[in-house]
Every structure is written in structure tokens, then in C-alpha cells.
Amino acid sequence: MPHFSFEYSANLENMIDIGKLCSVIRESAIETGLFPMPGIRVRGFKAEHYSIANGDEKHAFIDLSIRLREGRPQDMKDAATKIIFEAVKQFMTPALEQHSIAVSIEMRDIDATLSPKTGTIRDHLPT
């Protein structure tokens, strides 16, 4: 049940393929070995209104938030954060070389007692 949610400035849609970014995040999350594949959820939210740095409209951003159930060892979370961040940076390299873009990631734990869940995705995956 890791949730990968990112906000991005609307102007970023002219610079990168947002759908492909979702796939890059999902694939890198699987690669870490820390997250069970059936629980991975990646979604992007466009910020229509934003103001960055000096207010120049050429600036763009992506802010990825990773929320996961508590209990995983810190060293594994550190390693996973690095793998995902590197995958995002690699995907973003062509755009970063041509545009003013800020990229950030934050991983944080969810208190399991305050986060009930249910679902049937696993029931519908091929075996």
C-alpha cells in the first residue's frame, strides 16, 4: 500500500510526458523490492495555479510524496528513496537540461492504526 502522489506545475505538460513519468515511478518502486507490486498506486495532480522563485512562468516543479505503512527499516527506505529519485532524475534529464525545473521527493510513514484499508486488486491480478 505505498501511495506515490506527485504535484506538478501545469507548464510541465509541455516539457515531459506525465503518463510516462507515472510509469517510471511505478517501475522504479517495483525495482526497489520494498513495495509489493499489487499495492503500488501512482497518481499525478496538476497545479493550475502556482508561483515559483521570482515568479517567471518558465519555472516548473514536480513534488513526489511517497506514503507507506510504518514498520519498514530505515536503511531500506533510504535505499528505495534513492532508487526512485534517480529514476525520476534520469527520466527528467532532457527536460532539466532545457528548462528551469525543481524536482523533490519525500517519503513518510503512515500510522497503520489510523489508516484502515480494504480492496480486491490482488484478487484480479493474473497468477
Keywords, please?
127 residues, alpha/beta, Macrophage Migration Inhibitory Factor, 4-stranded mixed sheet, 2 helices, elongated
Q: Summed up, what is this model?
A:
The protein is of the alpha/beta class and 127 residues long. 31% of the residues lie in helices and 27% in strands.
Low-confidence stretches: none
Order of helices and strands: EHEEHE
User: Which descriptor suits the 3D outline?
Assistant: elongated
Distance between the termini: 19 Å
Multimerization state: single chain
Record the strand order, biggest sheet: 2-1-3-4
What is the percent of helical residues?
Answer: 25-40%
Count of β-strands: 4
Number of H/I helices: 2
The first-level CATH class name = Alpha Beta
For the report, how would you describe the main beta sheet?
A: 4 strands, mixed
Q: Which architecture would the CATH scheme give at its second level?
A: 2-Layer Sandwich
- CATH topology group: Macrophage Migration Inhibitory Factor
Structural Rg: 16 Å
* Integer average pLDDT: 94
Computed structural class: alpha/beta
How many domain regions? 1
Q: Tell me what portion of residues adopts beta-strand conformation.
A: 25-35%
Specify the CATH homologous superfamily: Macrophage Migration Inhibitory Factor
